[in-house]
Design goal:
- Two copies of one chain form a homodimer.
- Chain A is an alpha/beta fold.
- In chain A, helix 3 (80-105) crosses helix 4 (123-134).
- Chain A has seven helices and seven strands; from the N terminus they run ββαβααβαβαβαβα.
- Chain A is globular, with a radius of gyration of 17 Å.
- Chain A has one domain (2-55, 87-218): 3-Layer(aba) Sandwich (Rossmann fold), CATH 3.40.50.1820.
- A seven-stranded mixed beta sheet of chain A has the order 1-3-2-4-5-6-7, with helices on both faces.
- The mean pLDDT of chain A is 94.
- The A-B interface holds A 168, 182-183, 188-196, 203, 205, 208-209, 212, 216 and B 168, 182-183, 188-196, 203, 205, 208-209, 212, 216.
- Strand 7 of chain A pairs antiparallel with strand 7 (190-195) of chain B.
């Protein structure tokens, strides 16, 4: 999916959005954000389905891990190591895929070949961290709703400006794990925004803040 | 001190700024912020010297506590209980003084008699918390660089929107104490912004954020 503003012929900076776990490239949150990014600030916004999500089939390995996560959820077992393994498996596919997406979208004559932004929460953060670490075109990132366990090594390689969102009462990501991930980023400019509420309750004003952050860093 | 924008005849919302420990109403940080608040966003900004600061003499009790804090600093003793006592002593004076300042400034025909904002870091946060808890005219506050020890009871009475700033490598305020103060606010809208750096290293973009926060809440 590629969103661009109506009736604007200028070349515009690209933002790639990574969707959350169980979601897809046309999930309502992705669409609503992409439309605002395009309409109000003139960004081009791209989103693709992660393997096993949206229009893309699950592999046998995906199904095996997801079944095991369901079992552990029912029996109260520890989810984090499984989730970290699942994210590592997915990142091995999404990092080169997303690099190819940048290649393709940046060939369009109305999309800037310059600095690119990345936006991703939850699984979109877990997969975004290794992607940003590997991809020098990404020059600013809004990340959040994820802990350090699933992407610690890559996080320590990130040096671009990061705006990092934490939900203070997140029922899935322990507060300490979020703060630990923020600590790991090697960026000279990184800013953590924490707000009350559960995993899905990001306040609307954080979208305004993300837009200003990208505008500041992608020009 | 009262700052207002040049050549604007309209009635404008008031923001009271509380200065930090050892500073005063005309400290460079206060002046720079007040000028931007007035010039770029049209706020009226007031600042007064806290007792024992700027043009106001220290009492014998101030001198006794300050001497004891110096001694403990040299001997490595625990500063927090002394500082909490000092702030409580000062707040007993500043809360009614600041209420009188609002009374006086809001009588000016170019200052709005409506909602007022409060901005205070460090000691300005420690004294601001009991002030905001006591003063219903304050409807939005930017606070930070202070921990829970010196104003816990009053913090739990605050229900107005709060933007709370934490310096992640603050050499004076432990991170856990800052997070504990943020936790105490009873506000439905509260947002924590944490940035790398020491006590005095607030990034410039937080001033932009504070201005947007006040604009959103004071209209």
């Amino acid at each position: 999916m590629l969103w661009t503003p109506d009736g604007v012929a200028e070349v515009r900076p690209l933002i790639l959005m990574g969707h959350g776990g169980g979601q897809h490239k046309k999930a309502p949150g992705i669409v609503a954000r992409a439309r605002r990014f395009a309409a109000e600030y003139g960004f081009a916004v791209a989103a693709v389905d992660v393997p096993g999500h949206g229009d893309r089939p699950r592999s046998e390995e995906h199904n095996r891990i997801i079944a095991e996560m369901r079992t552990r959820a029912q029996t109260g077992g520890e989810q984090t190591p499984l989730l970290a393994g699942f994210h590592a498996l997915l990142a091995g596919q999404t990092v080169p895929e997303w690099q190819a997406v940048l290649d393709a979208v940046q060939e369009l004559d109305y999309v800037s070949a310059g600095p690119v932004g990345y936006w991703g929460m939850s699984m979109g953060c877990a997969l975004g961290v290794p992607f940003i670490a590997a991809e020098p075109r990404i020059r600013a990132a809004v990340l959040g709703l994820n802990g350090a366990e699933t992407s610690a090594e890559a996080a320590a390689q990130i040096t671009v400006p990061v705006e990092f969102l934490v939900q203070w009462d997140d029922q899935w990501v322990p507060r300490a794990a979020s703060l630990a991930l923020f600590d790991l980023f090697a960026s000279a400019e990184k800013t953590l925004h924490a707000n009350p509420g559960k995993h899905g309750d990001l306040p609307v004003f954080e979208l305004d803040s993300a837009l200003r952050f990208f505008t500041r860093h992608l020009g």
